[in-house]
Amino acid sequence: MSGLFSALGSFWTWFQYAFDPLCGPAGLFTLFGSSSIVACGATGWGDEIAFGVKVTVTLSLATLPIGLLLGFAVALAMQSEEKTLRVAGGIYTTIFRGLPELLTLFIVYYGVQMGIQSILAWFGNEQRIEINAFVAGMIALSVVFSSYCSEVLLSAFRAIPKGQYEAGDSLGFHRARTMRLIILPQLIRIALPGLGNLWMNLLKDTALVSVIGLSDILRQTGIAAKVSKEPFFFYLLACALFLALAMLSSIGISAIDRWSNRAGGRR
């Protein structure tokens, strides 16, 4: 069994290298040659910047589903008939839309550490706790994303006629089934443009995690700029990388939009 896992690990390592768009055999940085300042390997900064791109993309993709689920839950609370849930949802969105994203990140990164240490100290444990920078960034960006996402989804919910819910009731559907089969497909089509904009903002906001030591695009290019004394080149490279991610995202969002419209047409 250990041999199988070792073989799978080796294959995954080869797969990542072979299809790496920056430092793979046909990667962008590889094409510049070994003498370039962005060469992959010991002679350039290609490997470090490629790792930063992976961290940025991974953080964004890890944050997206959490933010969507939180935003959906808050949107449901804000249109609930229960006043307490509506007030709680309004307070949540007001706080995290009103606070600067960087401040939210600091509160999560330092506040969670202090909270855990206080709890441990209450039990007589004086051990120092340090929260992982990736986890802190994911939590902070998730709550910020969800606060904006909830407003987009709430507007989409309000755009769906109440007759759609009544149609589900008349068919004998439970409310959860009505939501899954009737409401959610319409919700996705209506909210997709707004959610696409929020995804673009999320990609940009990942640059904030560089201040807590996470090796994203901005941190890696910043280190390369200081060491190489070529700040304009490396920050211009960071711009190009973020723009490339934005363009790929636009293509993906357009494809999802076309698919959702075709699916809606078939219904």
UniProtKB/TrEMBL annotation:
Main location: membrane
Molecular function GO labels: transmembrane transporter activity
Keywords on record: Cell inner membrane, Cell membrane, Membrane, Transmembrane, Transmembrane helix, Transport
A matching Pfam family: BPD_transp_1
Membrane topology: Multi-pass membrane protein
ABC transmembrane type-1 domain segment(s): 53-254
GO cellular component, as recorded: ATP-binding cassette (ABC) transporter complex
Subcellular location(s) of the protein: Cell inner membrane; Cell membrane
CDD domains attached to this UniProt entry: TM_PBP2
Keyword field contains RNA-binding: no
Membrane keyword on record: yes
Transmembrane region(s): 57-78, 99-123, 135-160, 181-200, 232-256
Family of the protein in this entry: Belongs to the binding-protein-dependent transport system permease family. HisMQ subfamily.
The protein, known as: ABC transmembrane type-1 domain-containing protein
Organism: Ciceribacter selenitireducens ATCC BAA-1503
